Amino acid sequence: MTFAELDWGLFALLLLAAFAAGWIDAVIGGGGLLQLPALLLVPGITPLQALATNKLASVFGTATSSVSYARTVRPDPRMVLPMAGIALGGAFAGASVAAFLPAEVFKPIIVLALIAVALITLLKPALGAVTRLRHRGARHAAVMWATGLAIGFYDGVLGPGTGTFLVISLVGLLGYDFLRASAKAKIVNFATNLGALLFFVPIGAVLWPLGLAMGAANVVGSLLGSRLAIAKGTRFIRTLFLVVVGALIVKLGLDVWGENLR
């Protein structure tokens, strides 16, 4: 498949999906729920090419929202940068697994985890309203680093919902409010996208013209989404978080159901 062979209607749909994905990712994560399925509509594309091209588009959007949050929310680089570095390594390892292990293996586990996340968020309305750190010092750093490694690996293997998992981990396990968790999650999510690309680029899995075009649309969405999230604050992010988690449960749940019926 070459860029020139794309139907203009499908190309416009891909750009729209990339814009919406950038907006959602900037606020709470989960933009891959739109962007990756849209890429799978491209005639002749393989799942690995779709995953790799999705990472290329997303790396531009997450870089943009990372800068926006860093300027306004100012996450502590001493905590978030080591987490991002470890997550990058995890994503590279996950991408290498994705080349050989079907993503379907992980989907039932992800659905159960998302249901648990939604229930916890609904039943604890005060969760993430304000920052109340659960750990200090070395233990705080260890939990952050372990979270970065695990979610980075997941992002390399599959991807959709990575930002969402990062946010709920930073809120639930570490005690940050939703706005500060989102600021840190964007930086780490940029690192996971970059880590996966470091594996996908050398093996030739990236469709460059399409990925760069979608990356530009992703940047615009990210700029608008991050500005809205910063302006609206924690309550708005929490509400959209529940919407995105619900959509992820439905999408991945239907995938698992369809695979079991085959």
Task: Provide an overview of this structure.
The chain has helices at residues 8-27, 32-39, 47-72, 77-98, 107-123, 137-157, 162-172, 178-200, 208-232, 234-261. 77% of the residues lie in helices and 0% in strands. The protein is mainly α.
Question: What's this entry about, in short?
Answer:
With 262 residues, the protein is mostly helical. It has one domain. The protein has 10 helices and no strands.
Blueprint of the fold:
Blueprint: H1 8-27, H2 32-39, H3 47-72, H4 77-98, H5 107-123, H6 137-157, H7 162-172, H8 178-200, H9 208-232, H10 234-261
Helix pairs in contact: 1-2, 1-3, 1-9, 2-3, 3-8, 3-9, 4-6, 4-8, 5-10, 6-7, 6-8, 7-8
List keywords for this structure.
262 residues; mainly alpha
Question: Based on CA inertia axes, which overall geometry fits?
Answer: globular
Element order, helices and strands?
Answer: HHHHHHHHHH
Subunit organisation of the chains:
single chain
Number of helices: 10
Q: What percent of residues are in strands?
A: under 5%
Low-confidence stretches: none
Structural class: mainly alpha
Largest sheet: none
Specify Rg, calculated over alpha carbons: 17 Å
Q: End-to-end span in angstroms?
A: 28 Å
Instruction: Please tally the β strands and state the result.
Output: 0
Number of domains: 1
Helix content: over 70%
* Mean of residue pLDDT values: 87
